[in-house]
Automatic annotation (TrEMBL):
<protein>
    <submittedName>
        <fullName>Cis-golgi transport protein particle complex subunit</fullName>
    </submittedName>
</protein>
<dbReference type="Pfam" id="PF12739">
    <property type="entry name" value="TRAPPC-Trs85"/>
</dbReference>
<feature type="compositionally biased region" description="Basic and acidic residues">
    <location>
        <begin position="753"/>
        <end position="771"/>
    </location>
</feature>
<feature type="region of interest" description="Disordered">
    <location>
        <begin position="59"/>
        <end position="84"/>
    </location>
</feature>
<dbReference type="GO" id="GO:1990072">
    <property type="term" value="C:TRAPPIII protein complex"/>
</dbReference>
<feature type="region of interest" description="Disordered">
    <location>
        <begin position="729"/>
        <end position="771"/>
    </location>
</feature>
<feature type="compositionally biased region" description="Polar residues">
    <location>
        <begin position="189"/>
        <end position="203"/>
    </location>
</feature>
<dbReference type="InterPro" id="IPR024420">
    <property type="entry name" value="TRAPP_III_complex_Trs85"/>
</dbReference>
<feature type="region of interest" description="Disordered">
    <location>
        <begin position="184"/>
        <end position="213"/>
    </location>
</feature>
<feature type="compositionally biased region" description="Polar residues">
    <location>
        <begin position="59"/>
        <end position="72"/>
    </location>
</feature>
Length: 771
């Protein structure tokens, strides 16, 4: 079939995304007088421009064609049920997490493992940044290196606290700009002062705009991806898209995976956790520099003593890794080799010679490869790019290309730095801190020391209260942080190092020790973060947890973390991250853990922290959580199919209220499919109110998707006025319609929404329904 031509666009048709290319001939496939593009939210009126601007298509590639995820986007290809066969979802009840549970890159557990990784800062000289900008990277060396750190090539050997090696094939690091994205510490406040926080109309406590900005940015990013998908669905056959049920109901949708990835991206350098604190800093110069050794010493002094040095609560004893960037096209390699040997003599063995071409690679070059966009950019960064694509008519495709020789050199450099410098340094620090600091707190001696410290602190507080002076308690500064050289800060860094090296047992034991210390010091954000990571590391450990042990450990930790984040610290981001990660890990364990996961997920919904997008995504995930619990026997006793179907209906209604009719229809189809899997096979045919509720929602979605009244945007006038009829296919099979007609009777209920539908459409669709 020949491709339709778009007269309004001068770009080649192959530059358009697969989903958007079908949007040009919607009225050719559906010749009805009322069909028009899917309505969008009021905030995204510029989405019509996106279809004519193919340069913006790459910004939405993560949800248009996600590998191995549920086909919930216009370019979804097939079902990943084949990929999921033999994974964690096939294991038995009350299981422990297997070793290869995070192999699927689209699954939440893989995102969790890839989120908390070592951060490496990049600090380059001016001549180095100028050389990289000549290659087309305006943000310098950091922009060039960032995609290569997200997947270290080959296997990486990591030793735990007992000296036992473990092979990891998906290790990654995160490159950041030195001295940026620093979070200001919260001042010391009492719990009684924060308990009286004002409340909004919906009952949720009011929070500062800055503390809600992270959640708002994530919601905006996912909302734009959804709106773009709605627009891209124009003209695609509804029979093959809309009526397709989710066959792989346990896979994460690309929009939920995007929400979770942006939630875990862009971690700031904060005092209460050290995941974003630099483990190493790349100090780079180029072969163009006239005084290279002096320049390296100047850059080192600026990172440790100058104005750009990190705050006092960040440990300055991190690895410095020196890089000499050689210009292959203009500079002499013999001179650069001599300079590199001089660097190793003066600065040690943590050095590397990176050979790059200075010219810019374009798409037409023979030896180029596309440089992928970073999957772990922050929500604010991605939102800024999307807004720029909406507002700038001359917006260029952000795709970049790099010479294959440069890519090979960068991969070799990153792997060598990780395997020979970063991981050995982290292992050495973790061993020293564990032996010299943490071991003193364990056992009977550590308990006596902790008890004596409590009494001494109590006495000093009673004496200092009479003088009126505000003193620090247990090393906790009243400004809201621990100094980097205190034992609490060192143990927190030890726990985070162990977590990043995937030594879950050492990480959990250290977090557990810190919980009581932070509680006694009333360092509530530290206390919340320690409880959060103690629960997460315990759930990641490969051991089974009974219901009693979960109630005594995991539930108490999650309750303390959520209460401290949400009430004491007014941190909606921390509260959201805690419960979302916990419910994902609990769901993977199966059995009764699934009920606990659903309970915490419901707790997050009831807190009203999330926006409308997060609320709908979490309801959809809650349906998947209940649906993943398998029953016993031929009647599946103990399964949660009805609850799963009910939450799918709730999610469909939440999407419909936001004018996101495609995900709403998919959730409704999933609810119908789940009801049909019940042992008796009658679904909700005998429940009049429930049946009418689903029928009412189905009528609204069918009208919006097939007969969008009152909208003729993007349609020629001759098609709109011609009145060409179309024989629409029902969204359910014939047997379901007949069963619904026979069962429908007596009780009448009002539709769920206030929008009135036309009388003729209601009379036609009223004959259709769900069993």
């Amino acid at each position: 079939m020949p491709r339709p031509q778009d007269e309004s666009s001068t770009e080649p048709i192959q530059a358009l995304p697969a989903a958007a290319s079908a949007a040009k001939f919607s009225y050719m496939r559906h010749s009805t007088s009322t069909i028009e593009p899917f309505p969008t939210s009021p905030s995204d009126s510029s989405l019509v421009f996106r279809r004519s601007n193919p340069s913006a298509a790459s910004l939405y590639a993560s949800t248009l064609s996600p590998p191995g995820s549920r086909s919930m986007s216009p370019a979804g290809r097939g079902s990943p049920s084949r990929i999921l066969s033999g994974t964690v979802f096939d294991l038995g009840q009350n299981r422990a997490l297997p070793e290869n549970v995070g192999d699927d890159p689209s699954e939440p557990l893989n995102l969790i493992l890839k989120a908390f990784v070592p951060h490496v800062s990049v600090y380059a000289s001016r001549d180095t940044e100028a050389l990289i900008r000549e290659k087309g990277f305006q943000h310098g060396l950091w922009e060039l290196l960032r995609p290569f750190g997200e997947n270290i090539q080959g296997k990486v050997n990591i030793r735990d606290s007992n000296g036992i090696g473990r092979i990891v094939e998906d290790f990654s690091i995160r490159f950041t700009r030195f001295g940026e994205n620093i979070e200001r510490p919260d001042a010391l406040t009492s719990g009684s002062q924060q308990a009286q926080a004002p409340r909004s109309q919906n009952g949720a406590p009011e929070r500062d705009a800055g503390k809600r900005s992270a959640i708002n940015d994530i919601e905006s990013v996912v909302e734009r991806h959804l709106s773009y998908a709605e627009e891209s669905f124009l003209g695609m056959p509804h029979q093959s898209i809309m009526t397709k049920n989710g066959s792989d109901s346990e896979a994460a949708s690309p929009y939920y995976a995007l929400y979770l990835r942006r939630l875990l991206s862009g971690l700031p350098i904060s005092p209460h956790e050290t995941f974003a604190h630099p483990v190493a800093c790349i100090i780079a110069i180029s072969s163009r520099n006239p005084a290279p050794i002096e320049e390296l010493r100047r850059l080192y002094s600026e990172t440790s003593q100058g104005e750009r040095r990190l705050p006092s609560w960040v440990d300055g004893d991190y690895l410095r890794y020196y890089v000499l960037v050689h210009d292959e096209e203009n500079d002499d390699i013999a001179r650069s080799m001599g300079l590199f040997e001089q660097m190793k003599r003066h600065l040690g063995l943590h050095c590397h010679l990176l050979r790059l071409r200075c010219s810019q690679s374009v798409e037409t070059d023979d030896d180029n490869i596309p440089l992928p966009r970073s999957d772990w950019m922050s929500a604010a960064e991605e939102l800024a790019e999307i807004r720029r694509s909406e507002n700038d008519e001359d917006f260029e495709d952000p795709s970049r290309y790099i010479f294959e020789s440069d890519a090979t050199a960068i991969r070799t450099f990153v792997r060598e730095m990780v395997t020979q410098s970063i991981i050995p340094t982290m292992e050495r620090h973790a061993t020293i801190w564990n032996d010299q600091v943490a071991s003193r707190r364990r056992g009977l001696t550590g308990r006596f020391m902790n008890l004596s410290k409590r009494f001494s602190v109590f006495g000093s507080n009673s004496r200092s209260s009479s003088s009126g002076a505000s003193t620090s308690k247990d090393g906790y500064d009243p400004s809201g942080f621990y100094q980097a050289d205190t034992s609490e800060a060192i143990m927190r860094k030890l726990a985070d190092f162990a977590f990043m090296l995937r030594d879950w047992r050492l990480a959990h034991s250290t977090y557990d020790l810190l919980r009581s210390d932070f509680s006694e010091a009333k360092a509530w954000k530290y206390h919340a973060a320690a409880n959060e990571m103690a629960a997460i590391s315990l759930l990641l450990m490969p051991q089974q947890l009974t219901s009693k042990s979960r109630a005594e450990t995991v539930d108490q930790m999650l309750e303390s973390a959520f209460y401290s984040y949400n009430t004491r610290c007014s941190s909606p981001y921390g509260a959201t991250r805690t419960l979302i990660l916990a419910q994902e890990l609990l769901r993977l364990r199966g059995g009764s853990s699934i009920d606990d996961a659903a309970r915490w997920c419901t707790r997050l919904l009831e807190s009203k922290i999330l926006g409308s997008i997060g609320d709908a995504l979490l309801k959809e995930r809650l349906a998947i959580c209940y649906g993943s619990k398998s029953g016993v026997g031929s009647w599946s006793w103990g399964s949660r199919r009805r609850k799963s179907a009910a939450w799918s209906v709730f999610a469909a209604r939440a999407w419909a209220q936001q004018s996101k009719y495609i995900p709403a229809q998919r959730c409704l189809n999933e609810a119908k499919r789940m009801y049909e899997t019940l042992p008796h096979g009658q679904g909700i045919s005998r429940f009049a109110i429930a049946r009418e509720t689903m029928d009412s929602l189905q009528r609204e979605l069918t009208e919006k998707l097939e007969f969008p009244l009152g909208h003729d945007r993007g349609m020629p006038e001759d098609v709109v006025d011609g009145g060409i009829d179309e024989e629409s296919e029902a969204l359910v099979d014939t047997r379901s319609r007949r069963a619904s007609n026979l069962a429908r009777g007596g009780t009448e209920t009002a539709p769920l929404h206030n929008e009135e539908m036309s009388k003729d459409t209601n009379e036609d669709i009223d004959k259709e329904g769900f069993a």
